[in-house]
Structure formats: C-alpha cells, structure tokens
Write a structure and sequence with these properties.
Blueprint: E1 3-13, E2 27-34, E3 47-52, E4 55-57, E5 74-81, E6 89-91, E7 100-102, E8 104-105, E9 108-109, E10 114-115, E11 124-127, E12 145-146, E13 152-155, E14 167-179, E15 192-193, E16 199-200, H1 201-219, H2 245-251, E17 259-261, E18 273-274
Parallel strand pairs: 1-12, 1-13, 2-17, 10-18
Antiparallel strand pairs: 1-14, 2-3, 3-4, 3-7, 5-11, 5-14, 6-7, 8-9, 11-13, 14-15, 14-16
Cofactor: Mg(2+)
Keywords: Hydrolase, Magnesium, Metal-binding, Signal
Pfam families: Pyrophosphatase
C-alpha cells in the first residue's frame, strides 16, 4: 500500500523574520547507549529522550506545533537527522514519550547511501510536533492514506549542522507530496512526487492545520491509534494520557540520567559513493555489489 509523506521545505529561522523567539533553552537531552546500535539480548539500544526543565517529555506530543500556540507560518521542528550525517534517526511512535532512536532494517541500523556530489543528507531532517499523517483517512490532494507518523520536514535554511533532538523554529516555504517507496541505491526507481511540483506555502500551512487536527483526534482517542503511544506531560485535562513530568522517569522506566557510550562503527558499504546518470539511473560496474538497505 502506498502512503503519503509530506516533506516541508523551510528556509528562515524565527529570529530572522523579526518575530519573538520562544525560549527553547529549557529543552535538553537525555541520551543513553551507543549510537549506531540496536537492541540485543545483552544490551539496550541507543535512545534520546527530550527533556524540559530536567523531566522527560514527548517531542511529538509535548512540543507545540506553533511557538506561540497561534496558527501561523512559523512552526516548531524537531531535528532527527543533522546535516551531513547518514544514520536514519526517527521518532519512536510506539514507546512512551516517543524517544528518538536508530531505525532498523533486517535487525541492523539503517543508514542512507551517499550520492555524488552530496554526502548523505545535505539538509536538516526531522518531524513537526503535534501533527499526524492519518493512516485511517485518504488525503484529498493525493487520494492516499498517511504513513502513521508526524509530518516530515527538511530545513534548507541553516548553516549549522544541528543535532539530534534540537528544537528549532522555522518558516514554511512549501511542501512535497511524496510516495516514500523507491530506493535508488537498491537498484529501484526514484521517489514519486505527486503532481511533480512543490505545494505552495499557503496550501502547506493548510495541510499542517489539517494534520494538527488529526493529531488532536488521535490523542483524544477519536481515532484508532494502533500501537502509537500517546502519553504526554503537558495537558492534565487529557487525563487518560497525562503523566506528571516528575513521575515520567519512574513510570516508564526511563534511565535517570544520560549514559553515552562510544558509537559503533558505520557499516563499510555506507562509506562509498553512489553515482547516477542523467536519467537518475544507478550506475554500476561488473561485479559491483549493492549492500545498502
């Protein structure tokens, strides 16, 4: 089944457009384990929890979509994959408070192949909090259901490479309605962009408002959430999903403090460059073995 992923292209940090920036200095990180690892029987895999005022919070459900809680062109953005890195870091939708983790394929950490002349991600990549691409509803623009995650975003504005777990404020320029299915480095075709064009900022902001409503219905129990964890620490009125910030560490058995271990080595196949021709077809030579997932 095809699913819709809306990638938001953004350009200007909030401070650059003359608005008053929200103080995100209260967000810190609690990181445990070794990067580039996954769960085994004898060790726990790598996780990063977002903290506010020293307590763990959900980067999906607790960080507001709009910095001032009023709809507008400026939104919050949680960095999952910093610029020029290749680890496929995502928000863990099925665990309490949705820590960031290293996605896997065939029980191994996923990485992104590098295509010349770019090295991995040439932009910051992450998700938009308090949005949900509803898997139960067909989108009126694409006719496809959502992918069950927060809306994805890539930030082309910043010179800084950013860091995993960073909360930024950005201005929406537009979006792409993309079927995230094909992988060129695996010998597959290009990703399909619905309409083969950018969606303008006005339309994209309307889509964000729509996905925010889907998220609200999700956390209020109006939608089938499947395995999604909707625990949160900011809205006590939603009593079925609320936990006091000071109780979250014990309740969800989250490590009390960071314990950062040396990262594991990246798999050798991801150290190489991949090349495509003018038709974006993968170039291979006799005996070439494609080992990326």
């Amino acid at each position: 089944m095809y699913v819709l992923k809306l990638f938001q292209a953004v350009l200007v940090p909030l401070s650059a457009v003359g608005a008053v920036a929200q103080n995100n200095g209260s967000y810190t990180l609690r990181e445990v384990g070794a990067r580039n690892t996954v769960l085994t029987l004898w060790e726990k895999d790598w996780r990063v929890w977002l903290q506010k005022d020293g307590y763990p919070v959900s980067p999906w459900h607790d960080v507001p979509l709009y910095p001032d809680n009023k709809p507008g062109p400026v939104i919050n953005f949680v960095v999952e994959i910093p610029r020029w890195t290749d680890g496929k870091i995502e928000t863990q939708r099925n665990e309490p408070l949705n820590p960031l983790f290293h996605d896997t394929s065939k029980n191994k950490p996923r990485f992104v192949a590098s295509f010349w002349p770019h090295k991995t991600y040439p932009f910051l990549y992450g998700s938009i909090p308090q949005t949900w691409e509803n898997k139960n509803v067909k989108d009126n623009y694409t006719g496809l259901v959502g992918d069950n995650d927060p809306v994805d975003l890539f930030d082309v504005s910043s010179i800084s490479p950013g860091y995993t777990g960073e909360v930024k404020q950005v201005k929406v320029l537009g979006g792409l309605a993309m079927i995230d299915y094909y992988k060129v480095a695996r010998g597959k075709g290009l990703n399909l962009i619905i309409g083969n064009e950018y969606v303008n900022a006005r339309t994209m902001n309307a889509k964000l408002a729509e996905s925010h409503q889907h998220w609200s219905d999700l956390v209020l129990g109006k939608e089938d959430r499947g395995k999604i964890s909707i625990w949160q620490t900011t809205n006590p009125r939603a009593c079925k999903t609320y936990v006091k910030p000071e109780d979250a560490t014990k309740k969800f058995e989250i490590p009390e403090k960071s314990n950062i271990l040396p990262p594991a080595a990246r798999p050798a196949p991801y150290d190489r460059w991949y090349y495509v021709d003018e038709k974006f077809t993968l170039i291979t030579v006799p005996g070439d073995v494609i080992e990326v997932d």
